[in-house]
Design goal:
374 residues; alpha/beta; 10-stranded mixed beta sheet; 16 helices; 15% strand
Length: 374
């Protein structure tokens, strides 16, 4: 293995690089760095988790005649997100649409010092096909948003010059939210007691049609997670590992690939039919506490401030268009990562920003749609 790794030859691994654990993604000893791995029959969970992922190189799946009926009976509901899967969440347009029929998204985000998170979410939602994107913002910050945004609209909500959302205006927010297909809430909200009360009161509104819950909105619910379980409308939550730990405390999230997938599936039962996007490398999507999807796009350059806010916007836009929380989340995660991969190719992992992920979204959509049309 040491000789292979020190050579300048093109390296092809059969089934998996020597030294990788196909279940966990661990590499306990010296491990081959392959340029190409040709795996047989089915991909292996561990091949998508670090550190094994770094050794696989390009992964190709080679059919060797395994009986499909028996394989289907044996396989767990663990699936890969590829371009074909992601394409299912992109609603085809018929040609007679108007802006009110291709998704209305209300972004509830922002507070003093964190207006950028709200802007990124709104811009990503509009770039992902939503017909109308409106930011509900604390009134004292509205001028900042008006300067930063062009196509996206704003609605200022009275905040008594506090710079964050106040609980006494939650009823007004409920009325506004009732006019939108999806509410995306959380980025840059802040963690004041008033804002926590605002989030809980708003999400319990029966007038909301669907929601994507992220960041500080998840913090607001961390001590009252039954609210998430009891919501009657489609919900996607998008925590990174620290946020998810806060929601499921005192449980510990496993690092090993197969254990992590199993843990997410079991833990998701606590949240009933909520779709969970556990952001990471790789990101996982759990639908209806059963199917777990492993994402195949994304890179280390996406570990940058605001990347999660962009994902929230993409998810909200797709959910507003196709009305299905599972397919919207699966497609959003893939497109988010694919756009990040394109940004990496042009800008490197070091120089890319969250705004660059939005910039490359059109190319990501184009590539996904083109391949499936062909």
């Amino acid at each position: 293995i040491s000789w292979i790794n020190s050579s300048t030859l093109y390296v092809i691994s059969a089934d998996t690089p020597s030294g990788t654990n196909c279940n966990t993604g661990e590499t306990p000893g010296e491990t081959v760095y392959a340029d190409l791995t040709v795996t047989f029959g089915l991909p292996k969970i561990g091949q998508f988790f670090l550190p094994a992922k770094q050794h696989v190189g390009s992964l190709k799946i080679h059919e060797i005649g395994l009986p499909k009926k028996e394989i289907a009976a044996l396989c767990s509901k663990t699936l890969l997100i590829d371009r074909e899967t992601a394409f299912r969440g992109i609603k085809k347009r018929l040609g007679n649409e108007d802006k009110n029929r291709v998704g209305r998204v209300l972004v509830i985000a922002g507070s003093t010092g964190m207006t950028g998170a709200a802007v990124l979410t709104a811009m990503a939602a509009l770039r992902s096909g939503a017909g109308i994107v409106t930011l509900l913002v604390p009134e004292s910050l509205n001028t900042i948003f008006e300067i930063k945004l062009t196509e996206e609209m704003t609605i200022p909500l009275a905040d008594n010059s506090k710079g964050f959302f106040c609980i006494n205006n939650v009823e007004t927010a409920k009325v506004i939210a009732s006019n939108y297909d999806v509410v995306a809430i959380g980025p840059g909200l802040g963690r004041s007691e008033e804002t926590i009360g605002f989030v809980k009161g708003l999400l319990l509104s029966p007038e909301i049609k669907a929601a994507v819950i992220d960041a500080d909105a998840l913090f607001a619910l961390s001590n009252d997670t039954e609210i998430i379980s009891n919501l009657k409308y489609p919900v996607v939550i998008t925590p990174h590992e620290r946020e998810f730990r806060r929601l499921i405390s005192p449980a510990i999230i496993p690092v090993k690939g197969d254990e992590r997938v199993t843990f997410l599936r079991k833990t998701a039962k606590k949240f009933k039919k909520t779709v969970i996007v556990l952001k990471g490398s790789p990101s996982l999507v759990c639908c209806d506490a059963e199917e777990v999807y492993i994402n195949t796009t994304g890179n280390a350059g996406m570990a940058t401030a605001g990347s999660g806010d962009v994902l929230t916007g993409i998810t909200a836009a797709l959910l507003a268009q196709n009305k299905d929380a599972s397919s919207a989340a699966v497609s959003a995660v893939y497109l988010h990562g694919l756009s990040g991969d394109m940004a990496k190719e042009k800008l490197t992992e070091y120089a890319m920003t969250s705004g660059d992920i939005i910039t490359f979204l059109p190319e990501a959509f184009k590539e996904c749609i083109k391949e499936n049309d062909e």
